[in-house]
Design brief:
By secondary structure, this protein is an all-beta fold. The protein has a single domain, classed as Methylamine Dehydrogenase, Chain H, CATH 2.130.10. 0% of the residues lie in helices and 57% in strands. It has no helices and 27 strands. The protein has a five-stranded mixed sheet, with no helix packed on it. A hairpin with a 5-residue loop joins β26 and β27. The protein starts with 16 loop residues before the first strand and ends with a strand. The N terminus is likely disordered.
């Protein structure tokens, strides 16, 4: 598992246009209550799901080995299925009946596909290299993922790849001198997100990318706060966590749409979330899955907000 400063796993794209935002409206609404989804023994991270929760996927620590993970997918009303056959694995995303996840074997990390109906496994074309590929999501022909290599410094990219045309777009990158750490968020429909952490400035920002127009937008962040753990719906509504610079420092979950930031929920003191995953349920309803991680103990389970 690759970590950035907040404990999540971990880069300027050619031809992209940065939309500058100075301020954003803030909406105040009744806070939502998070519903537990997976609270089994051990640690659960990196959830993803299909509409209606027909399939739910997540990474689960092994008994007696809290830092070794396998990936499971659970059909509604049926026992869960172990996705990875060998090595360790981490979560990714689901679109339709296709799941994508991270497989680590013999010190090498690659992306793999899993058909949740037939249980067939395969490798996505044009993605895996000798570098470390990680934290993928999938929407139609598009795969969003992170890539890293090197050690002093660690180089990284956030990449969007079209498996139909073989087109590859580098959305963000960090090469050479250390300065920022990049973490992919989610691709969904015409949109993708990622997070950029700059240690020197103690800044953590969320970016939104529109595939059809090849434009990117930095989501506004209040002074003294950081934003991370981003996800997005097919219409471009962005979700993310906001906090101080320490793990579990007054963490809140937010929605950003049409220039308006809406506070959705507050996490208990000392808890954080390193991955959100947005599922469009139709009719203006979004299921926002996330893990709730206790900073002091490492305990982590899967929760969900219903946003309408």
């Amino acid at each position: 598992m690759i970590l950035h400063s907040r404990g999540s796993r971990l880069g300027a794209g050619a031809g992209l246009f940065l939309v500058g935002l100075v301020s954003a409206g803030v909406a105040w609404a009744t806070l939502l209550t998070a519903q537990p989804v997976v609270t089994a023994k051990g640690r659960q991270f990196e959830p993803s799901a299909t509409p209606g929760g027909t399939y739910l996927a997540y990474a689960q620590s092994r008994p007696g080995h809290p830092n070794r993970f396998d990936v499971y997918v659970k059909p509604a009303g049926a026992p869960r299925i172990k996705v990875n056959r060998r090595g360790v694995a981490f979560g990714g995303g689901i679109d339709g009946t296709t799941m994508i996840y991270q497989s680590v074997r013999n010190g090498q990390s690659n992306l793999r596909l899993f058909d949740v109906v037939t249980h067939a496994r395969s490798a996505p074309a044009g993605v895996n290299t000798k570098r470390w590929e990680w934290l993928p999501s999938i929407s139609g022909d598009w795969i969003l993922y992170g890539q890293r290599w090197g050690s002093h410094p660690v180089n990284g990219r956030v990449i969007l790849h079209d498996t139909n045309t073989a087109e590859t777009r580098i959305l963000d990158e960090q090469i050479g001198k250390p300065g920022r750490l990049l973490s992919p968020g989610q691709v969904s429909g015409d949109f993708a997100t990622w997070d950029r952490y700059t240690p020197i400035a103690h800044a953590d920002n969320v970016f939104l990318y529109q595939i059809s127009t090849q434009t990117k937008t930095k989501i506004p962040v209040p002074t003294g706060r950081v934003q991370y753990s981003s996800s997005v719906t097919p219409t471009g509504t962005v979700f993310y966590a906001r906090s101080g610079t320490a793990c579990g420092a007054h963490v809140t979950l937010h929605e950003y749409a049409s220039g308006t930031d809406t506070l959705l929920a507050r996490l208990p003191n000392g808890y954080d979330s390193f991955r959100t995953f947005a599922v469009d349920e139709g009719g203006g309803v979004t299921s926002l899955y996330f893990e709730r991680f206790q900073c002091s103990t490492g305990k982590s389970h899967i929760y969900k907000l219903t946003v309408s």
